[in-house]
Amino acid sequence: MQSRRPAARTGRPRSAAADAAILAATREALVELGWSKLTLSDVATRAGVAKTTLYRRWAGKNELVVDAVAELFDELELPDRGSLAADIEGVVLQFAAILDRPEAKSGLMAVVAESTRDDALRARIRTSIVDRQKRLVMEGRVRAQKRGELPGDNDPAQAARSADLIFDMVAGAVVHRTLVSARPADEAWVRDLTRLLVLGLAGAARAS
Amino acid sequence: MQSRRPAARTGRPRSAAADAAILAATREALVELGWSKLTLSDVATRAGVAKTTLYRRWAGKNELVVDAVAELFDELELPDRGSLAADIEGVVLQFAAILDRPEAKSGLMAVVAESTRDDALRARIRTSIVDRQKRLVMEGRVRAQKRGELPGDNDPAQAARSADLIFDMVAGAVVHRTLVSARPADEAWVRDLTRLLVLGLAGAARAS
Amino acid sequence: MQSRRPAARTGRPRSAAADAAILAATREALVELGWSKLTLSDVATRAGVAKTTLYRRWAGKNELVVDAVAELFDELELPDRGSLAADIEGVVLQFAAILDRPEAKSGLMAVVAESTRDDALRARIRTSIVDRQKRLVMEGRVRAQKRGELPGDNDPAQAARSADLIFDMVAGAVVHRTLVSARPADEAWVRDLTRLLVLGLAGAARAS
Amino acid sequence: MQSRRPAARTGRPRSAAADAAILAATREALVELGWSKLTLSDVATRAGVAKTTLYRRWAGKNELVVDAVAELFDELELPDRGSLAADIEGVVLQFAAILDRPEAKSGLMAVVAESTRDDALRARIRTSIVDRQKRLVMEGRVRAQKRGELPGDNDPAQAARSADLIFDMVAGAVVHRTLVSARPADEAWVRDLTRLLVLGLAGAARAS
DNA sequence: CCTTAAGCGAGACGGTACGTCAAGTCTTGCG
DNA sequence: CGCAAGACTTGACGTACCGTCTCGCTTAAGG
Known about the structure:
4 copies of one chain form a homotetramer. By secondary structure, chain A is an all-alpha fold. The first copy, chain A, is built from 9 helices and no strands. In chain A, helix 4 packs across helix 6 (about 100-115), helix 4 (about 60-70) packs parallel to helix 7 and helix 7 (about 120-145) crosses helix 8. The first copy, chain A, is elongated, with a radius of gyration of 20 Å. Chain A starts with 15 loop residues before the first helix and ends with a helix. Chains C and D meet through helix 6, helix 7, helix 8 and helix 9 of C and helix 6, helix 7, helix 8 and helix 9 of D. The structure holds a DNA duplex.
């Protein structure tokens, strides 16, 4: 999660409790203050930790917030609800629920914005957050193929392109709905989204 | 664009040139420095204007950047390319091109992130940027209905919901592709996106 | 009092009332705010006058305050109380009373401090304020000589030196008492001061 | 000299060198710029210190200048020259020499002016500067009494009043001579001042 | 068990930007 | 041309965080 140190074997080991306290304090501060007013001094105080301890483990605000937010997405999973549409609805609702929490709202978009000028940060976001979700898309696709809801992949490259597209559309739609349009991604909306998507996929399967 | 003052007729009038210079300087600074390293002092210097002049017209960094970025979207338009799919492709490519510019990338997501904690800012974003694009969706819908590509609106409320959904999906997908996935929203990708969407709409029209 | 303009005969003449209003407003602001927090904008507002009008007549804060304070000293006079000691006591009490007013306290020392680095300002202070008081010393001396309380001036240069010394001692003592020691220059104190001074002068007269 | 903190034993200790550098830089800036153009930013730069360091130790310009000027008066002492008159002359010349230095001229009167509206500042001036000098008056008085030049104190309250008066007269005269009259408090002038004072004191002793 | 190297808290440090304020100038339109 | 109004440039203000540093103390592993 944080910078790997190459096997320091002597000296006092780092407190494991501090990490958890810091990440929790970060989320708490995100809720209360939002990204732009969050300060590392404040986080350190909340965590009952010195500023130096914090800087020893994270390079700065961006990295810290990525890790703090990433933990929120660990709870995402893909339950088997019996059909492609139901599976999608389930996972999208989970995603929307996470994104509706203020610590995710405030933090996630901000680090994405920062990542437009910081490749290392973008890589960290991808590793810690995005790829974790994309895995769900792949699993859902395989599961739907087993069920016969989607055709098998004749062309693997085409399959990857399709997965990327679906992922951008679904994740993008939820984010846009939640943050830009500022309206809730509730069950009705998710049902409409899923319906449009599944119909599109079905049409594409017929056409190909 | 900035706060309207109710017709002050006495005293020296505000320099109109300064507004343009400031917004241009803001975009320039966004390109070079990105959102988080952009400072109002620097913008003022670039614009050849005093910091106080800047604060007299905008409440802060957020408001300024919204206005600076909003001007980028003024060039969006919906050319008639003969079919719904072609129209969508055309406008999405325009949107993607704007979003690919560094001043838009850096600035837009940052103010969206800020807006999660600032209702006035969100309203400003909506007025200055979002609604301008949504108008294109409405126009495209009407045009497609005239062509017979889409059924007429039996239920206006349902039509609005549908337009909102499409807008969130398309805009969200482009944003997610560009900023999160960090891959270009090029013609091939846009064609795939459009195809999936049009098939979905067609399927929905059949089903209803 | 203010900068002399050499007979402008065309255009709208300057409002004479404005001068008085500005100086009164300056004293009022001195009372309320003190020297360092007094601003020319505020003075202009109080006087119901534009800032430009103020700058057209005074070069800056220092000059304005000198003139505003100088008017306070116009009321000083040397009443004939029948003896040197009584005359001194009378005028010193008057001086102490003026110096006790907050607009004098705040303003006078500040401009004196400024004048250590500004010869023109020092000259203005001397002309407008100091020499007006020193005249009283000279008058008192002559009057005492007429009464036979002091010997005539055999040596005019020595007489001038003596007058200067007395002036510095008396004025300096009152200022120091009032501002530095921050205790009132009341009747008892003035009587002690006068007694010491008159005894000294008498001793000097005997010794020469 | 600055605010006493009650023995903080944790954290990085304050640099002692910084204090000296800041006070020296303040005096240097007073010489070059005078009180009103002295800025704390400039002082910080001269001292090779961050502005925050300066504000951490002094509340503002006034407090800083008081301390910077106070150090100048540390060199004052009362040498035993054998007679009351000679002792007075000696110490007055020292005082005049200090007051003639531009950093004292510029700074001292300004803070006195400010102190008319700031009781804490006046107390600081009194503690750091005034009382240090007044001690010299008391010592001189005792020494003269031992020599038989002045009568013993029958009435202690009267003695204190007398000492206060002498102090205000002498210090006030030197200040007035130097700053208001703007003429040097040289040996001849100091001799005249001392003579008048000693004659007055002698007369008072005879009369009582 | 005892050295020893790192972790740790506290908080001072040099910086940079903030948003505000006052100084003094300039630009309007009105009288 | 005087004047009121108010926008303008300039530059200092005092504050807040940044990320680094210097202390003195604590803590575990390894000799």
